[in-house]
Specification:
With 58 residues, the chain is mainly alpha-helical. It is built from one helix and no strands.
Length: 58
């Protein structure tokens, strides 16, 4: 009887977590803003982000 109750609780938790994950994955990120006319942003590379990528070992 106790084991059946644990199975039911695990199933309910699994369903709820699955719904939350599906809802999170369904969200669409906002569209990027159009570039401004300022010349300062022209020199910033958009394809590189500091701190990301492989770590180099010395």
């Amino acid at each position: 009887m106790v084991a059946a109750a644990w199975v039911v609780v695990a199933a309910v938790v699994g369903v709820l977590v699955g719904r939350m994950i599906r809802e999170r994955d369904r969200q669409v990120p906002p569209s990027p803003e159009p570039p401004t006319a300022a010349g300062a942003e022209k020199d910033v590379p958009k394809h590189r982000v500091p701190g990301w990528g492989r770590q180099r070992r010395s």
